[in-house]
Amino acid sequence: MREKPISLLWGLRSHCASHGCLYCYFGTDDEHREQVPTRLGVLSHLSPNDLTTDQVLEFAATLADSPVGRVFLAGGEPLLWKPINRLIGILKAGGLEVVVCTSGVALNRPEIREPLIELGVDAVSVSLDSADPVHNDRWRPPRREGDGWEAVVSGIIALIEARGSAPRPKVGIYSVITRRNLADIVAVPELAAGLGCDYAVPQPIALDTGHRLSAILSLTSDLLPELTARFDDLYAADLPLVLPERAYADQVASAVRRPTDLVPGCFGGDTLYFVQPDGTVWDCPSGLKIAATPPQRHRSLKGATARELFRAPTGCGNDCALFSVDCVNMWPLAGFPALASTGQEASRA
Ligand SMILES: C[S@@+](CC[C@H](N)C(=O)[O-])C[C@H]1O[C@@H](n2cnc3c(N)ncnc32)[C@H](O)[C@@H]1O
Ligand code: SF4
Question: Model-level pTM greater than 0.85?
Answer without folding.
Answer: yes
